[in-house]
Amino acid sequence: MRIINDNPISIPSFSVDDIKDDTIADKSIIEKLVHNMVLVENGIYLENIYDVKTFKGDNLISKAKPKAVEIESFYISKYPITQTEWTLIMGYDPSEYDVLDEHLPVYNVSYEECLRFIAKLNRITGLKFDLPTALQWDYAAHGGRMNNYHLQNMTRAEIAEHAWIDIKKPFPVGLKEPNSIGLYDMFGSIGELCKKETDKKIIKGGDIESTRIDTGCHGGYNTYYYADYWSEQAAPSNIGFRLVCNEIDIKSLL
Predict the structure, then answer these.
(1) Whole-model pTM?
(2) Tens-digit pLDDT profile for the chain (254 aa)?
């Protein structure tokens, strides 16, 4: 396993000149999206195996023995993908509310739509974006190799500084405090799609209910199996996503 010492935390050399698609109306949006990718350095992550079907409502989670997993370095979006970024690439806004807000996360998207968005973005930028795996999401959400960001170790007031509680609709990204590696809205916002690796597609994050904080059941984040609720063509109203990009792909730009 390589140890990374002096890597950049973003992709500074990427610019609008690297975007070869002249049909893109505002290339600066793509440039900003790329620059907002945050480096998550490689390390060992203790994966907790949850029984996700009991991790709902006020039910306590059941947890198996942690398993040590080696995680390679990757870049991940600082924020969930926004409505403006989605509309620029896809040409429409699937979100439920009529007012397009450049700072609101896109939601009400299906798994298939997300894959089409990523395919188009990859063609435009020449990079290799993807959905994060569930392990990448967990590792990044908890602070990467530092593993020092866990909501169950916070007071209610501290949680409120980092996450929306009892939300009824999405809020603009980046209004709460980030986690320890500079990622926003990992908790207490929209649920986020992860990459399908077996026969299961997993959703991470999502809303935080005050009743679960009061009873000590918040545990950090929700985990759901997408297929338990929706087909790949379904577009849930509270689900969005963020991107990852392999370190090796980004290094080719530097």
Answers:
(1) 0.80
(2) 222 233 434 444 566 666 666 677 788 899 999 999 999 999 988 776 544 444 444 454 454 567 788 999 999 999 999 999 999 999 988 876 655 567 899 988 888 899 999 999 999 988 999 999 988 998 999 888 888 877 777 788 888 888 888 777 788 999 999 999 999 998 888 889 899 876 666 788 777 777 656 544 444 445 444 444 444 545 566 789 999 997 555 555 54
* β-strands 191-193, 239-240 pairing: parallel
> Rounded to an integer, what distance in angstroms lies between the CA atom of residue 254 and that of residue 231?
40
Inter-residue contact 233 to 201 (CB < 8 Å): no
Q: What distance in Å separates the CA atoms of residue 222 and residue 192, rounded to the nearest whole number?
A: 10
Q: Measure Cα distances from 52 to 49, 63, 81, 106, 225 in Å.
A: 9, 10, 25, 25, 8
Name the one residue in this structure whose structure tokens are 């320890």: 180
Torsion of CA 148, 152, 154, 160, to 10 degrees: 110
**What is the C-alpha separation between 73 and 111, in angstroms, rounded?**
25
CB of 194 closer than 8 Å to CB of 140:
no
Domains identified in the chain and CATH numbers: 27-251 (3.90.1580.10)
| Structure tokens belonging to residue 126 | 């020449």
**Tokens, residue 222:** 């929700």
Cα–Cα nearest to 243, from 13, 106, 75, 18: 75
Question: What are the tokens at 203?
Answer: 């959703």
